[in-house]
Amino acid sequence: MVATAPHGETTADQTPAPQQTPRPAAVVVLAAGQGTRMKSATPKVLHALGGRTMLGHAMTAAGELAPEHLAVVVRHEREQVAAAALDLDAGALVVDQDEIPGTGRAVQCALDALDARVHATRAATLAQSDTVHDDEDGEHPLGDGVDGAVVVLAGDIPLLDGATLAELLAAHHADGNAVTILTTELDDATGYGRIVRESGTGDVTAIVEHKDATAAQREIREINSSVYVFDAAVLRRGLGGLGSDNAQGEVYLTDVVASARAEGGAVRALLSDDPMLVEGVNDRLALATLGAELNRRTLERWMRDGVTVVDPATTWVDADVELAPDVTLLPGTQLHGATTVAAGATVGPDTTLTDVEIGAGATVVRTHGSLSVIGEGASVGPFAYLRPGTVLGTKGKIGTFVETKNAEIGAGSKVPHLSYVGDAVIGEQSNIGAASVTVNYDGVAKHRTVIGSHARTGADNMFVAPVTVGDGAYTAAGSIITRDVPAGSLGVSRAQQKNIDGWVESRRPGTPAAEAAARTRDAAGDDATLAPQAKRELAEHNALNGANPSTDDDGDASASTGSA
Q: DSSP string of 309-335?
């Protein structure tokens, strides 16, 4: 980017430092368009890329200028766009464009609303001193309204950033311009308004829309980006004289350029050498193209700041994500929303995280998660699912095929595999056995499970909440824990196992299993395959039926039908 010197000639390094540039009186974001080429029920400016809507990108860039006032002009799908604007900035002034089409009319509606706000503020202040009176010269007793620089930008230019706007504003003040326009050059400028410059000075004499351009003007490659800085008084006067005598029957904001020139004001342009920076979105193809370009720029910035991105082609990082130096992102990683990753952490491959905080040195592998916290040195995955409210402590572990929700897992505690932990608190240095479930829902309400520190729970445990397992307690494998387990106790809940001898051969005759069992019995005797417990049960059965149990050489009871 280069700044425009006086008399329209461009030169580098003339932009004042940001702190020397006065804040603008207002920024106006134009978000009233219908966006028919998007073919969507969603308003065009609410389509997202890089984790923000296009309106969000525009308002974020505008906010970096710290304007005295921010106005957003709406019309089509007014309620949705207005709600989104106020959600982004509760102090924004939402302005309704009337039925008169065109960017000029949109800005005129915004300026009228801004002037009314300024008048109301001044009236409230002056009412305290009772000094308001009619001016003998017929001027408004509260002044004209907004005074100073007014920045205008379209709401569908998502790559435009605050730094570029600040540079445009600085050039406007440095040159004392009436109007300053952000422009760029395209190899094919079809469809864009052309910048017509004065020979010799390079000042802008007009912006001609493509449909109204002559054949010679259509050869011009410098185009209007729909980003401007106006002196408020110049803008107010120019808008008052606008008409719609053009090919589209619209009120063009670009016609203010001619009126500013007619008054003798300076109209100059700041030429950007980065066309993508001011590229607008009109359809889904452009949305995808600019989304990919935004992601490329985001990754490039992080890599220059010390982040390793192994495969930029498959890695996506939203605009609001924060990464520390020495973070490593492996292929297939997507980081969305307000996700933050601390130094030395490794994320991926094939991981999607939204609004997740990852501590230093943590590893997250093949995981899907949202609204969760992963502690320093902790490990997650592969194939884990972190639902909102998950908090994993320092050096904790959430392992393979584990799902968590609204769960606090203390430092050093592990949930290694095949488990669900929901609405639960687990203390420090505890181990949860495989295939465990906190049974948190009774069909009406959710209940909490509490497992203390240094606890050891067995595999295939069901913790039927509300239930508490104390510090240092154990639970046996296969247990259904329905009552509290005191600290240091062993919780056991099992039915006694019984083996029904010969069941397969009698109930599944002719199957491979039955044939295998028969072969084994034939080779080793009737009770060769019986386990000690089954032998004891068989002996008890025979005793009840009058048979005499005997003891074999190994001391196991066996059945004998002979007399003593």
A: ES-GGG-EE-TT-EE-TT-EE-TTEEE
- Direct distance between the N- and C-terminal alpha carbons of the chain, in angstroms, rounded to an integer: 110
Enter the pTM of the model. Answer: 0.84
Q: How far apart are CA 215 and CA 245, in angstroms?
A: 20
In eight-state DSSP terms, residue 33 is -
Q: Taking the C-alpha atoms of 26, 27, 32 and 34 in order, what is their torsion angle to the nearest 10 degrees?
A: 170
406 annotated among ligand-binding-site residues: no
Tell which residue, 401, 457, 451, has the closest CA to residue 423.
Answer: 451
Alpha helices in 139-187 (DSSP H): 162-175
405 is in an annotated binding site: yes
Query: Is 103 annotated as contributing to ligand binding?
Result: yes
Q: Give the pLDDT mean for 121-127.
A: 79
Interatomic CA distance for residues 425 and 449, integer angstroms = 6
Higher pLDDT, 543 or 489: 489
Q: Average of pLDDT values for 452-463?
A: 98
Confidence of residue 497 (pLDDT cuts 50, 70, 90): confident
Q: Give yes or no for a contact between 321 and 302, defined as CB atoms under 8 angstroms apart.
A: no
Is residue 32 a known part of a binding site? yes
Residue 300 C-beta-side C-alpha neighbours within 13 Å: 6
Q: Which residues contact 452 (CB under 8 A, 6 or more apart)?
A: 427, 430, 468, 469, 470, 471, 472, 473, 487
Comparing 21-30, 54-63, 368-377, the range with the smallest average pLDDT is 21-30
What whole-number distance in Å separates Cα of residue 173 and Cα of residue 6?
A: 11
Q: How far is 336 from 52, CA to CA, in rounded Å?
A: 10
Residue 320: Cβ-neighbour burial (10 angstroms; 0-12, 13-18, 19+)? middle
- 417 labelled catalytic: yes
Report whether the peptide linkage leading into residue 349 is cis, meaning its omega lies within 30 degrees of zero. yes
Q: Let me know how long the chain is.
A: 564
CA distances 86 to 41, 70, 93, 120, 289, Å, are 20, 11, 8, 21, 28
Amino acid letter at 527?
D
Q: Does 389 score more than 90 pLDDT?
A: yes
Catalytic residue among 47, 336, 417, 454: 417
The stretch 308-329 carries a mean pLDDT of: 98
Q: Rounded to the nearest 5°, which phi and psi values hold at 342?
A: -85, 170
Q: What is the pLDDT of residue 321?
A: 98
Q: Which of 390, 466, 477 is nearest to 431 (CA)?
A: 477
Q: Is 174 annotated as a binding residue?
A: no
